[in-house]
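Hey, can you fold this one?
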Amino acid sequence: MRVPYVNLSQQHAALEDELLEATRQVLRHGWFILGPEVKELEQHFAHLLEVPHTVGVNSGTDALVLALKLHGVGEGDEVITVSHSFVATASAVCLVGATPVFVDIDPETMLMDPARLEGALTPRTRAVMPVHLNGFPCDMEPIAAFCEAHGLALIEDCAQSIGAMRAGKPVGSFGTGCFSLHPLKVLSACGDAGFLTAHSDVEAETLHKLRNLGLRHRDSCQWVSGNSRLDTLQAALLLVKFKRLEAWIEARNAHARAYREALEGVVRLPPREGPGDRAVYSTFVVRHPERERVIAALSEAGIDAKIHYPYGIHQHEAFAHLEHGPLPVTEEVVRQIISLPVTPEMTEAQREHVIATLNAVA
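Sure. Predicted structure:
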């Protein structure tokens, strides 16, 4: 039995009529740049995340870059973050001229360990960037308290975690939340897209200018900035998908519950959510000390498992010049992790095939 890691063609087949009609509407009104669908989508996101504003942009990476610029992070500054993430987390910091400072992760959650923050603090620290990896919420209360105590910006990398909650509060609402809508995310565009949260009218106005070449309006440029606008067409397609977000999250959680029940003691499972927490399982990540053998056996059985991610950011050539302390937990985790298929399109029979195969080979 074939079990793909993701099946976007199947997802889109079920929505094809609505997606095509949304496309036709944009073609008819012709407002391809910052059209009405962008504003409508931003309002939906703001309601979902319980924040005053959200600002649509062209990618999760640009969301991070604009958040850093919003908080004045630049040349000579440091941003505390984690190495266990996609490279865009650190790339965004470097793109504004600042330096990522990596702290190790918690061995259970595989997310930022708040106890490590104090040791990374220097006079140049300007922000902390926790990453809600795998759709699982970070331990935000001590992270937010640390930022408040030291006057630091709190920028949440929520690329994989739209809809996740920490103690009843949406991720992305603790600080400036930066979201990706890449095709492999829980809510996905048909291309690249993203957005970020704003907690005041002033922040929203600033981000509107930053995403649009620094323009007040067409004939008045206040700052030098890039073009990070969200295309109207992507917003229109996302509005169709947004209506299914809660159902898709529940489907992912149903798969996660089944995996937990069947794989206890077979592989190391992700942590359970605490009271008021909700994970959205953009990936369902298990750990095994013989990772390569297990992935090979899964592949032989037709199961498309992935690794998110096989290297810490600090282990990539592009970031080798960065100084960092020991990261033993990160380096152990990236040698063991396996991402299992967990999309809403996966059938119960496919899931049971994954479970049976893992029980046989792990």
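The mean pLDDT is 98. Let me know if you want another pass with a different chain boundary.
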